[in-house]
Structure formats: structure tokens, C-alpha cells
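#struct-pred
JK: can someone run the complex with cytidine-5'-monophosphate? inputs below
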Amino acid sequence: MKQSRRIVLGITGGIAAYKAAELARLLLKQGIEVQVAMTEAATHFITPATLQALTARPVWIDQWQDAQGMTHIHGSRSADAIVIAPASADFIAKLANGQADDLLSTLCLARDCPLLVAPAMNRQMWANAATQRNVQRLAADGATLLGPDSGPQACGEEGLGRMLEAAELARDVLAFLEGKTARGDVGLKSDLQSDLPDLRGVKILITAGPTYEAIDAVRGITNRSSGKMGYAVAQAALEIGAEVTLVSGSVALTPPRGAQVVNVVSAVEMFEAVKREVARADIFIGVAAVADYRVAQTSTQKIKKSDAALTLQLVPNPDILAYVAALPRPPFCVGFAAESEKLRAHAAAKRKKKNVPLLAANLAQDAIGNDDNELLLFDAAGEHRLPRADKLDLARALLRHVVTLYQKGKKK
Ligand code: C5P
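RT: done, C-alpha cells with the ligand placed:
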């Protein structure tokens, strides 16, 4: 029989506090005991009465309210974790510095259980060097960060800092309690499964970023790809429980937590890595901007400059996506196409040529380096538009489509 599980749900002052009520409800539905502790600021956003009614327990707010004044010590002793959702910038700063000036921060400092933190704040507050320093320190101290997400914010701005949705947080917390690092193989009940597409137990192989083809010791040919879209696809796949292997060219991004990352430089290295990994993959998504050509003869020394013209012979690189799609038992293959003109015609032709069931097309000038994008999806049923959105939201929408087609294909 499963042991009973118990968490302390800490709510701090921010508009996302309203999502904490739904999070409490979802966790309770999974048979987890939820004890709510709120900061005074949080009570301005959501009433303790709401949380008390949902959890059927008195809400802890005031550290002076209990006669012995020991809630801050005993409060976490029987808990499997403290989950702070939402965690305001101010509360994160307190946690990072070990401050303890109210019941919730004192509980956190006196805890003997893991701490999970779901940040929620304005994008500038999140991007601020002080917040980033605090978050890094918290993570180095062993706290687990859940999110944040990006998208529209209550203040009207758009960007990174939004708290994850309650269903996503519930899934993360459950995965954590089950001892998994990613949103993995946990015994979720159907109400969570219906909120999100489900890829538990499914292995996804993703290529991302540019490749770099050396000319000599210091020079090379590459593509202007930031890797943001591929990393967003990896993040979105992890969120819905997939096991993700990310074969990545050189990018300046932190890989999503839970992904198995294989770093490569050139197209040939990417090809070798994909060949090694592909047998285990159920789905392959080629997001990488692979250089079409490499230099036939690379020089190990720096080529000396002279007044004479220099001719480089370029040879074609292997087409990784076409190779995977042509395997005898290929995974479900998804390609990307960045076109600078005639998007529809080029993309539809590319889907046929590479023989992939789904191709996501975008305008190169729209996509490269930007945080948002829009996609046109081409599959056997025709064309589907995913409207302009932040790349993570777009990746989530893309994965919904992928999951539908993948599951349909399996039923045949
Ligand atoms: O032919 P093109 O480069 O436009 O095709 C883009 C799609 O094919 C992307 O999914 C990309 O990751 C993949 N590709 C590849 N290997 C190559 C070239 C492209 O996997 N050599």
C-alpha cells in the first residue's frame, strides 16, 4: 500500500496566488495531504478561508498564533516537501539569504525536507541580476525550481516569470514525490491527464541549434540559429512526461532540467549522435539548423591570409532527418523548415521529399534568434496554423499536434 504523503504548500504575495487553490485541489485529489501556510502579503490576493475550505485544515499565517509558538519547527517535520507556489521575488530573496521573519520563511529555514519553489513575478523582476543570483544560490543550496514559464503577464507585459499552470505544478510535485527528476512516470489520476497531452514512457530525440563546420583552426561556417526553438520543444516534451534526449549544437542556453544532452559541433557529429540514439526513440524532432555543406579539406592550422583568391571546396552534409525517416522502422518524424520566401510551396515540397509525416515551417527572418514565432504545420490532412506566440507556448502547441498524430499512428 502507498504511504500517505504530505506537503506544506507555501503561498506568497503575488497575483498567481489564485492558482495555488487549484494546485491544492489537484494534489488533494491525488491523495496528498496539503497543509497551507501563507505570508501576510498572500492574504491580500487569496483568502485563507478559500484554502481552509479546500484543505479542511486551518491555514498557518501568523507565527505568534499558536500557544507554544513551535509551528515553525514542527510544521515541516512530517512533511515530504515544502512547495512554495507562487514564490515572489521577495520571498526568493529571503530564502536565498536564510532570512526568517515570518512563519513561512521560518518554516523553510527550519525544515528537514526538500524545498520546491515555483517563481512568479514580472519579467523584469525575474531577469534582474539580483533575482537570478538568488535563484542560482537557491538551486545550489538544493532547492528544486519549478518554472517559471513565459507568456502574458497580469501586468500586461509578456515574457518569462509567469508561474506554471496548476496542472503542470501538480505533475511536477507528484513526479518529485515519486523520486523522479523530470515530469516522469508517476501514477497520475485521470483529471490531470486530461488537462495535458501525455507522453509518459515515450522517448523523444530532438536536434537543436546550429552546426559549425570548421574551415581551419579558427574559422568556420555556421547557421544563425539560437537553439531557442529546439530547447523549447525539449522543455515542452519534458513537461508532458516524455524522456528527452537533446542533441545540441553550440548554443548559449541552459538545457531544460531532466533532458539528456549530447553536445556536438559539426553536422557529422550530430549525425553520429543521432545514429547512436535513434534506435531507442519513439519520436524524432529535427529542429537543428544543420549546415548543408562542410569544407572538403579542413586545415588544422590557421590558413594564412594572402592577396590571392581562396577557393574552398564544399561537400554536402548528410541529411539527418531524411536518414531517420528512411530507416526500416523509423520513429515518428517531425521536420522543421525555415524558408525566406514561398513558405507554403517550399515546406509542402520538403515534407514530401524528406518523407516525414509532419513538417513545421516558419519564415527564417521571423524565427531566428527571436523569443516568439509562428508556425505552419503540414501533415497528411493539410495545413494548420499555430499563431504567433512565445516559443515555449508554440512548442507546447506543436507537441499537442505531434501527440495526436503519434497516437493515431500507433492505433493503426
Ligand atoms: O533541407 P532543410 O535544411 O531545409 O530541412 C530542414 C529540416 O531537415 C530540419 O528539420 C532540419 O533539422 C533537418 N535537417 C537535417 N539534416 C540536414 C539538413 C536538415 O536533419 N543535413
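RT: quick notes.
The domain at 5-189 is CATH 3.40.50.1950 (Rossmann fold).
The pocket of cytidine-5'-monophosphate is lined by residues 207, 267, 286-288, 290, 317, 319-321, 335-337, 350 (CB under 6 Å).
JK: thanks, will look after standup
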